[in-house]
Amino acid sequence: MSVTTDPGVPLCDLQQQYRELQAEIEAAVGRVLASGQFILGPDVAALEEEVARYCGAAYGVGCGSGTDALLLALSALGVGPGDEVIVPPFTFFATVGAICRLGARPVFADIDPLTCNLDPVQVESKVTPRTRAIIPVHLYGQCVDMEPLWQTAERRHVILIEDAAQAIGAEYQGKRTGTLGAMACFSFYPSKNLGTYGDAGMVVTNDAEWAKRMASLRVHGMEPKYYHKHIGWNARLDTIHAAILRVKLAHLDHWIALRQAAAARYDALIERYHLTGFLQRPVVRPKRRHVFNQYVVRVPAGQRDALAAYLRSQRIGCEIYYPVPVHLQECLAYLGHRPGDFPASEEASATVLALPMFPEISEAQQRRVVEACAAFLRQRARLVA
Ligand SMILES: *Cc1c(COP(=O)(O)O)cnc(C)c1O
Does 118 fall in a domain? Predict the structure, then answer.
């Protein structure tokens, strides 16, 4: 085999899953095409019911993306100018962007340095009379420590909105995401654990009034047709995506089990190659079902970028989620934050590295990834010697 045909190890491989389900998915899409019901067709209502049931919640409101889900949830609460929403600065930008888009102010609370998840202790001191909501982000597929947040929310009368974009199926004390706050936002972006071939999302809640308001907001607040009760926008979930997602939802728990098995293999390989002093493995807190949307190691700050470059040179995919914490993003300079304001988030941005992770990843592929990390370390040792 010549080097040029070496496929390497991709960060995420969507092709295998598609090939396995191709006949079923194409039949589902074909049915939608033949039905002519492309906008909020019957598959959308069916998916809403099925995802809500999967989570153990009462209502699902399908929408155009995870970003739309965040905007819908915050809009349903009426969050706007003068309001504050507490979020971790170590997240995908959408969590914070949604708050700013509605004219509210994001108030950052730092993360637990080990799990990279929002630290409830940091949240407590950030609550003010203007705080409307807290958005815990279940990063990489592991749930935030919710118990202290439940207490804060109750005592201070604020609403918890889960950003569960990376964590469908994840559990905390035996309860699934979708039921850990008042509302939960999911993304069905292709690389999420339940992903379609395009953009889609959903908000899940037990509250009938909020569900109704969000279903209205996603169609320009139209109730009835051409009479506008709220100022909404177009945030609909396409029927084609709903049909694809219904096929895939039936496999989600199996895929989660495969991701967990792959994570355990990485853990063992990192130990076997004596890399535990170099690659800090993901920390899973007790009473959690971690669904491993990402397998993220921590690399000593000065070496992370060199390791990433080396892995890519070996055709091994890797990614930094996320290289710049949100409080230091250019477009949010108006908030006046400086480096040093959220040390755990800044440290995470300098040290995290996601290794290839998808349900079908093989042991041989994983061995190749970890061997490459070991080779990098040997090369470094030689350079220093
Ligand atoms: C993916 C993601 C989103 C946004 O979802 P989209 O469907 O891409 O709009 C929001 N928050 C987090 C944490 C995400 O990972």
Answer: yes
pTM reported for the whole predicted model: 0.97
Asked whether residue 298 is domain-assigned, the answer is yes
Q: Using a 6 Å cutoff on CB, does residue 66 contact ligand 1?
A: yes
How is residue 237 written in tokens? 């979930």
Contact 99, 125 (CB under 8 A): no
pLDDT at 7: 83
Instruction: Read off the pLDDT of each residue in 125-154 and give the average, rounded to a whole number.
Output: 98
Mean pLDDT over all residues of the chain? 97
- The pLDDT of residue 4 is 60
Q: Choose one of 63, 189, 352 to mutate for the ligand 1 pocket test, by most ligand atoms within 8 angstroms of C-beta.
A: 189
Q: Which atom of ligand 1 is nearest to the CA of 68?
A: 9
Ligand 1 proximity of 95 Cβ (cutoff 6 Å): yes
> Does some domain include residue 7?
no
Cα dist. 253→15, 273, 323 in Å? 19, 30, 30
Residue 156 contacts residue 123 (beta carbons within 8 Å): no
Strand partners, 353: 297
Looking at the structure, tell me whether residues 90 and 233 fall in a common domain: yes
Tell me the residue range of the domain where 154 lies. Answer: 15-249
What is the count of structural domains for the chain? 2
Bridge-partner residues for 228, per DSSP?
222
CA of 164 to the centre of ligand 1 (A): 8
Sheet containing 159-163, strands listed edge to edge, beginning at the edge strand earlier in sequence = 59-63, 201-205, 183-187, 159-163, 131-134, 84-87, 105-108
**DSSP string spanning 203-272?**
EEES-HHHHHHHHHHTBTTBSSTT-BSS---B-PPBHHHHHHHHHHHTTHHHHHHHHHHHHHHHHHHHHH
